[in-house]
Amino acid sequence: MSFKPANNIQDLQYFGEFGGVNPSISDSSTYTFLSAKTMFDTFEGNADGCYLYSRHSTPSNLYLGEALAAMEHTETANVTASGMGAITSVILQLCNAGDHIISSRTIYGGTYAFFKNFTPKFNIETSFVDITKLELVEKAITKNTKVIYCESVSNPLLEVADIEGLAALAKKYNLKLIVDNTFSPLSISPIVLGADVVIHSLTKFINGTSDTVGGVVCGTQDFIDELRNVNDGACMLLGATMDSLRASSILKNLRTLHIRMQQHSKNGLFLAEKFEADGLKTVYPGLKSHPSHQLFKKMMHAEYGFGGMLTIDVGSLDKANELMELMQHKNLGYLAVSLGFYKTLFSAPGSSTSSEIPESEQKEMGLTDGLIRFSIGLDADIERTYNTMRECMEELDILTH
Ligand code: PLP
Fold it and tell me: For residue 158, which of 113, 110, 111, 107 has the smallest C-alpha distance?
């Protein structure tokens, strides 16, 4: 693929108002106008380059949005206070009462809960399907369907969506394909593969320092304008606005994303291969045994690898908890939700980040009690990490050979 997402970020030039190499941070919630007429025009959305009020937009937020749009190959982007702020705004912008959504059944628990428990209040119904089976997705389409929603690599089962296949369906039935690309920034470019809107939780790999929540919607200028519209824009009216100070710190972190993703992926692949060879049930898109390994390879920018997320199944929740506590004790990482940190993070999704999904449905989708989700860190010596992890597993009789 000729599109180079990291080059696009790197090639943007920003200067602060005094020639600083970082843009100045806009530290205001409101902005003055020299004339009342310009203020009116700005309200109407007709005064480019003018700022009105910081829930609408700020220079710092626009800088970050521009960089993320460059990364995702969209015309523009709107940053939000969290990933959920991006997801809920997009869905409520696109769907009206009576509309229908088709969603992957394996998605982040908060998104699942929003579709399952919240949007029905507005008479918006969701069918959850196995997104890896295009025929099931097509079968689920009704005359009311507006949106196909998926994660490029799903949380927590690491299922991989066939974005080109889903985009073809979306085009055929005049639907919008929305892709949450949180698990695979730089590796996968959903827009290039035909998606209409890309969302990220910036909280994860993109920011990479686990010090803030944040989100982004990347799309066409028209769609982002709709989200920001003062009369009926979901981002403007629901108020999930990012603070300028945060936009500025996330922009600085974004500049090292390409290096971090390479290291996350390198370490992820190393551990996944070792765990699998040790006989552990291991899921990682970079393993040949992953059902969508070839599909990921076809979609990916190879230099960023298969990402930093992997899962193993140690048989029971008790064993999973024991192992995670021991690994934390040995300073191999933290027993914590979230992902994309320099330290390895691990959690048992069935009882944490996916606990919103009822147990019966967890079973059906293959989310087992003994599943541990790892966000592999930036460890400089991953072999040492592996050796200590192996010792922990031997101590707990998880490894049998
Ligand atoms: N999308 C995915 C894939 C996630 O894993 C998460 C959070 O874990 C979210 C969205 C929500 O993001 P945030 O916590 O920033 O609201």
Answer: 107
The average confidence (pLDDT) of the chain is 95
Two structure tokens written together for 133 = 């089976």
Which protein residue has the closest C-alpha to ligand 1 atom 13? 83
The pTM (predicted TM-score) of the whole model is 0.97
Half-sphere exposure of 326 (CA within 13 A, CB side): 17
What number does the ligand 1 atom closest to the CA of 86 have? Answer: 16
Question: What architecture does CATH give domain 5-254?
Answer: 3-Layer(aba) Sandwich (3.40)
Q: Outline where DSSP puts E strands in 142-300.
A: 145-151, 176-180, 197-201, 215-219, 281-283
Q: Mean pLDDT across the stretch 131-154?
A: 98
Please give the C-alpha separations between residue 164 and each of 237, 292, 298, in angstroms, as whole numbers.
33, 14, 10
Q: Would you state the pLDDT for residue 361? A: 84
Mutate to test the pocket of ligand 1, among 91, 108, 212 (most ligand atoms within 8 A of CB): 108
pLDDT in tens, 308-355: 999 999 999 999 999 999 999 999 999 999 999 999 999 999 887 788
Q: Map out the domains of the chain as residue ranges.
A: 5-254, 257-395
Across residues 256-265, what is the average pLDDT? 98
Q: Is the pLDDT of residue 401 over 70?
A: no
Q: Which CATH class, in words, describes the domain spanning 257-395?
A: alpha beta
Pocket, ligand 1, Cβ cutoff 6 A: 82-84, 108, 110-111, 151, 155, 180, 182-183, 201, 203, 213, 215, 353
CA-nearest residue for atom 14, ligand 1, is 83
The predicted structure's pLDDT at residue 233: 96
